[in-house]
Specification:
Largest sheet: none
Distance between the termini: 55 Å
Helix content: over 70%
Shape: elongated
Structural class: mainly alpha
Radius of gyration: 16 Å
Order of helices and strands: HHH
Strand content: under 5%
Number of helices: 3
Amino acid sequence: MSSICKNPREAFATQIETHRNERRKTLIALVAHDLPHRLRADT
């Protein structure tokens, strides 16, 4: 029971919207991190 209190996010992880937002954040972070490297390599 303590684990449920510690991780309230895991309970909401089943919701599609939350999962989608998490994925979107990760994708945006990856792209933002990747773009400068690609631009540098192309130049």
